[in-house]
Amino acid sequence: MLQHYYWFKRESAVWASSDQLNALTGGLDSEPVFPISMEYLFRDTILALRPNLTLCSNLEEATAAIEKLQTTLISQLPTLNVSISFIFLPFLFAVCTYIMNLMFPART
User: Fold this and answer.
1) Is the pLDDT of residue 96 over 70?
2) How far is CA 102 from CA 2, 19, 105, in A?
3) What sign does the dihedral 38-42-45-51 (CA atoms) show?
């Protein structure tokens, strides 16, 4: 989920691409606005915690990884004798996303 959040924020409209910046600045060469230090911090943290984890390269991959994880976990629920309805997991994801957006609001 952390990779999904990272890519969601990184691909946000707040962080313009080089082409968008060139259009806004009158064609001046400029790098993407997303802070490179945040990218390094994210990668270093993830790889320190999970060295064998394959990092997603965009939001679509991160979304697919979450869907795969949800499918795997939901299929394991009957064997774990846990009574969680199918409504609970999307609700939990929505609450986590809401809390993260409160903690780290998008720039305007």
Assistant:
1) yes
2) 15, 30, 6
3) negative
Question: Hey, what long-range contacts does 42-45 have (CB within 8 A, 24 or more apart)?
Answer: 42/6
Query: Tell me, what's the pLDDT at 71?
Result: 85
Convert the pLDDT of each residue in 20-68 to its tens digit.
555 555 555 555 577 888 889 989 988 888 888 888 999 899 899 888 8
87 CA to centre of own chain:
22
Residue 3: Cβ-neighbour burial (10 angstroms; 0-12, 13-18, 19+): buried
Segment 12-19 long-range contacts (CB within 8 Å, at least 24 positions apart)? 12/106, 14/106, 14/107, 14/108
Helical pair 88-103 and 59-80, crossing angle rounded to 10 deg: 140
**Cα 63 from Cα 18, distance rounded (Å):** 24
